[in-house]
Design goal:
The protein has 136 residues and is an alpha/beta fold. 32% of the residues lie in helices and 13% in strands.
Length: 136
C-alpha cells in the first residue's frame, strides 16, 4: 500500500493507518509552492528523484524527514560518483527531529520487505491451501 494511503487511512479499515491529513506534491510542483506544504508538515516523505530538492528552509523545526529518493551524482571534489537523496541531509538534519540518510536509510528496509514478500509468495505457490489458513 502506498505510504500516502497508509498515513491517510483511519483506524476503521482492514489495515489501520495514521489518520493523518496527507498532501501529495508532484516533482514539477514549483519550489515555492512545495515549500508552502513542507514548512507546515510534521512528516515529510521525499521520493521525487531530484537531488537535494528539500532544503532546510523548507522544513519545520522538529519535523521527521524520510528520504526515499536516490540519485547517482558526480562528487565535485573527487570526481567520483556518489549517491544522494532528495533531501539536503547536512542542512535539514539541523532542524529535523529525525532524518533518514541516503544511502543506508530506507533502502535496507525496502530490501528486507522485498525478501519477506518473496518468501510469502513462494510459500503460497508451494502450499496454496495451507497459506490461506495462515494470518497475514
Amino acid at each position: 500500500m502506498p505510504i500516502a494511503m497508509l498515513l491517510h487511512t483511519d483506524g476503521r479499515h482492514e489495515r489501520p493507518g495514521g489518520d493523518a491529513t496527507v498532501t501529495i506534491s508532484h516533482r514539477y510542483t514549483p519550489k515555492e509552492q512545495l515549500k508552502q506544504h513542507t514548512i507546515r508538515a510534521d512528516i515529510v516523505v521525499a521520493a521525487a528523484g531530484i537531488p537535494n530538492l528539500i532544503t532546510a528552509d523548507m522544513i519545520k523545526e522538529g519535523a521527521a524527514v524520510i528520504d526515499v529518493g536516490i540519485t547517482r551524482v558526480q562528487d565535485p571534489l573527487t570526481a567520483r560518483p556518489r549517491l544522494v537523496g532528495d533531501v539536503d541531509f547536512e542542512g535539514v538534519r539541523k532542524k529535523a527531529s529525525y532524518i533518514t540518510p541516503v544511502p543506508g536509510g530506507v533502502g535496507p528496509m525496502t530490501v528486507a520487505m522485498l525478501m519477506k514478500n518473496t518468501i510469502i509468495a513462494a510459500k503460497k505457490l508451494l502450499r496454496p491451501r495451507e497459506m490461506d489458513a495462515l494470518p497475514a
